[in-house]
Amino acid sequence: MSEVRTSKFTNKATLIGFVVLTGAVALLSSVQEWIDIAFHPGAATIEHLSVTGQQISPALTLIALAALASALVLTIAGRGFRRVIGLLIVILGGGLSYAGVRALIDPFDGASGPIAQVSGITGTAQSTLVESFNVSVWPTVTVVVGALLALAGVLVLVFGQRWKAAGRKYESGSGPARPRSATAPTDDRISEWDALSDGGDPTDDEDDR
User: Fold this and answer.
1) Are 37 and 44 in contact (CB under 8 A)?
2) What is the C-alpha to C-alpha distance for residues 52 and 111, in angstroms, rounded to an integer?
3) Distance CA 18, CA 98 (A)
4) Residues with Cβ < 8 Å from 86, sequence gap 6 or more?
5) Which residues partner with 134 through β-bridges?
6) Do the Cβ atoms of 67 and 19 come closer than 8 Å?
7) What pLDDT score was predicted for residue 173?
8) Given Cys at both, which of 39, 55, 134, 156 links 43, Cβ 3.0 to 4.6 Å?
9) Which residues of the chain have pLDDT under 50?
10) What is the pTM for the complete model shown?
């Protein structure tokens, strides 16, 4: 039973589908509200500011798209290239988790740009403008998704070498054809010598052709 379960969770289709799923969730998370900021009255041009994951970490969308592209490449990649793609997926997952952890630990660091746009104030003085702020669940979701994506990359590194290479079934059919083509000239020479020994001229056939 353990071997069957292992094969189901580590085969090519399952892991590629898992990478696609995590990349899609990461892409969705990048456009969601991560931080909601309420300013003191008159401190900014607006009372509330919603900051998305893309605004906090502009690389989020690129990482998510790269994960989706990696899943596409895995469908046609050979054994050697699968290791490269698996390592890339691990790095992408780590980048997602880092962005989420950064937003959870220091929300003001990622939101400093949007705050400066609506208040005109930069640096540590921005904290005096904020009355309250709320961090949504999406940074935590991104941390989890990044960890799962990195795990998928590790599984690709470990089990990707066992996947069947595309086009291998076509290679077996071409093997027997080579000996036939190699023996064809030898058979023609034997026929010519037989014709000469019988008194015939083998060049007659060539003229007829």
Assistant:
1) no
2) 9
3) 20
4) 153, 154, 155, 156, 157, 160
5) 36
6) yes
7) 45
8) 39
9) 1-6, 167-175, 177, 180-184, 209
10) 0.69
Which secondary structure element, helix H or strand E, spans residue 133, and what is its range? strand 130-135
pLDDT for the residue numbered 27? 94
The structure tokens listed for 39 are 């300013």
What Å distances lie between residue 194 and 180, 184, 188, 202, CA to CA? 21, 16, 10, 9
Q: Are 36 and 133 a contacting pair, CB within 8 Å?
A: yes
Q: What is the DSSP string of 174-208?
A: HTTHHHHHHHHHHHHHHHHHHHHHTT--THHHHHH
pLDDT at res. 206 = 52
Residue 7, C-beta contacts closer than 8 angstroms, at least 6 positions apart: none
Residue-wise DSSP of 113-125: HHHHHHH---GGG
Tokens in use for 173? 């059919």
**2: β partners:** none
Closest CA relative to residue 141, chosen from 105, 172, 97: 97
